[in-house]
Every structure is written in C-alpha cells, then in structure tokens.
Design a protein that fits this description.
alpha/beta, Rossmann fold, seven-stranded parallel beta sheet, 7 strands, globular
Length: 256
C-alpha cells in the first residue's frame, strides 16, 4: 500500500502571515504537500508557482457554509496525513460596535471564531500523532479594546480555544499554539479601516512586525510545544500587564 503523503494545511494563504507561512514551510520541506486555501484564486496560483513543494489549491471562503464544505469534502476524499494545520484567515474592523454593519460584525465572528473552530474539528481525525496546530490570534485578545471590541473578543476566543484544545490533544502529542502578534505589516490594517489607511500610526508604527518573521517564529514555537507565542518585547509586556493590572485601568489607557 502506498504511503499517504504528509500535508500541511494553511487557511488564509493568499496574503499576509498565511502566505509567508507557506513560503517558510516550503523552504524547510515541512510536508510532502502544502494545501493552501483562501478566497483569491489568482493569488493562490501565484503562490503555488513560486514554491517547490507540491501545492494543492483550495479556493474557498471558509466564512461560509459552502466554503467549509468545499474544504471538508477535499479532506474527506483525500484523507491526508496532516502534519500541520495553520489557521491564518482573519478579519476585523477598527470601529465602535454601533458604527459597524451587521455583516461586518458577522464576518468577524464567522472568520475568526466559527471557521477556525470548524476547520480544527474537521482536521482532527486526520492529524498524525505529533502534529501541530497554529492558530493566529492577536495580542488584542489579551484585554477588551473599546473601538476594536469585536475583533479583540474574537481573538480572546482563539486564545482560550487553543489553550483548551492543546490539553485535549496531549495524549496524541499534538501541539496547539496560539500566535499573538501586535501590529503586522499586512493588508489587514487597510481593510480594518475600510480603506482609509494602510499604515500604522502613533505607537503602533514603532512596533509593527514583518509577517515573514511572525510566520517563522510561529512554526518554531509550535515545534517547541509552546501553547502561546507572543512576538516582540512590547507585546510580551502587554501580556504580562494584562495578568497583573486590573483591566479597567488598562482599558482607560488604550487608544484604539
């Protein structure tokens, strides 16, 4: 019987951290196949053509039931030996709740929480012993953030879910890592401001990170079995402060 090829599955692979993660996984030959999924088919094709590892393109909007079913059918039909699952798809808006539309609120929760959870669940039967799961969260998930409330709450969910799932899968030696960066130089900021600006301002401009660095650090942290990966001194400090200082004090200080 032919051996089932190992696979690394990356959602949100068409841009940002997801794209850089695929490039890094290719550079270290992390799996026999890289399954790359996202909504932008052309971007996925361009990514496939730029790497050496066999890439399986799954063009799907996983925030929708239809997109989830496309990915589910592919996994159930192929029954891959999943070596790594990386949930990188994410969305959010830097506006007060009352200034966001119903669709913006729904999209944030559907992508950041619902889709991530459903993708994890559908992949569990196919994760090989010793596999890894990387869930892209955010340092915004450490504390409530007025003006960014829904996004921050959704990332708090990702952190909590990832930590619990790590313990559920310990007997299978599957490592689950919640990655919690601060500002990252991707297209996220432009979308979060509805196109108003793609550059970080104020303090964030001085602590913004490159997505390639986040991707490399995330894979290494997962390999070491870290439950949480917080890149950068400023975000590590925020993580520490969130544990020892009353959140009401921090919320008054935050400017979103």
């Amino acid at each position: 019987m032919d051996q089932v090829p190992s696979a690394a599955i990356v959602t949100g692979a068409s841009s940002g951290i997801g794209r850089e993660l695929v490039i890094y996984l290719d550079s270290i030959s992390a799996a026999d196949e890289l399954w790359i999924t996202g909504r932008n088919g052309q971007a996925l094709s361009d990514l496939r053509d730029s790497i050496k590892t066999k890439a399986v393109i799954i063009e799907a909007d996983i925030s929708s039931d239809e997109g989830i079913e496309i990915l589910r059918r592919k996994i159930e039909d192929e029954e891959p030996s999943i070596k790594l699952l990386a949930n990188c798809a994410g969305i959010g808006y830097r506006y007060k709740v009352e200034d966001q539309s119903d669709s913006e609120l729904k999209d944030t929760i559907d992508v950041n929480c619902t889709a991530l959870t459903r993708v994890c669940r559908m992949c569990l039967p196919y994760l090989r012993d010793g596999a890894g799961i990387i869930n892209i969260a955010s340092s915004a998930g450490f504390i409530p953030q007025p003006g960014f409330a829904v996004y921050a709450a959704s990332k708090s969910y990702v952190i909590s879910f990832s930590r619990a799932l790590h313990y559920e899968l310990k007997a299978r030696h599957v490592r689950v890592t919640a990655v919690c960066p601060g500002p990252v130089r991707t297209s996220f900021q432009k979308r979060a401001t509805r196109g108003a600006g793609d550059e970080f301002t104020g303090m964030r401009a001085h602590i913004v990170k490159d997505p390639a660095d986040i991707a490399v650090g995330a894979v290494k942290a997962n390999g070491r079995g870290h439950r949480t990966y917080v890149p950068g001194i400023s975000q590590k400090l925020l993580h520490l402060i969130s544990k020892i200082i009353p959140q009401n004090w921090i919320i008054r200080w935050i400017k979103c």
